[in-house]
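Q:
Got a chain?
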Amino acid sequence: MTPHTAISAAEAADRLAIRELVEAYAYCADSRDAAGQMALFTTDAGFIVFMDAKNPTPSQELHSREALAPVFDALNQYDATMHFIGQSTITSLSADKAEGVAYTLAHHLTITEGKRKLMIATMRYRDTFAKIDGAWLFSERRLYVDWIEERTLA
């Protein structure tokens, strides 16, 4: 572990704003606020998905805020979701750029003919952030799915 030194109030505010950005993404996903979720990204944002984290070839690549709409809309196929954010770390930070990683457990519930099924995706996001007009946004999210578990619920 690296030793901690005092940081400025501005750096503390930036770190908090970035954490709140990561949390807002999960909140918007779970509340089905696709427009709100899209607004968390720069207009030219990249969203790159690796459904197999060990495969260096992405499963999906999107390169604009507008291109994210169908991805976020796809959450409507679930009866409920809950994205639990574990540890998140900012790995680099400057006045207007940052990088970080966030670990997430994404729970997806479906109910078909009275039977409940749960899919849990264990994921990591490698994020690049940009501060634009005083607000932190995602400029790129790389989503790595480490594994998926599916189970039938009682």
Q: What stands out?
A: The chain has three helices and six strands.
